[in-house]
Amino acid sequence: MENYECRRKVYLPYAIAEKHLFGRDDCGKWLPYMSGRRAICVATKAEAARSFAVLLDSGDPEATEAARESQDRLREFAGDWPTS
Predict the structure, then answer these.
(1) N or C, which end of the chain has less CB nearby within 10 Å?
(2) pLDDT tens for residues 63-72?
């Protein structure tokens, strides 16, 4: 799998990424960013999309809101991501 570092800073609040995404192997890698206040993704476009789907389906209102905000940003830069 080819990883892609998010140069456009598609990120989530660290606590949300830690709770819902860390340790999953189908969502790419979410890494600490800005002293652990945020998490930044290293993933393919498909993995990032899966991350947002997990958050949107989580039933956690904060996770859902964060996913929607980050997903909008992901759409802005979708052309910068590998597709697989």
Answers:
(1) C
(2) 999 888 887 7
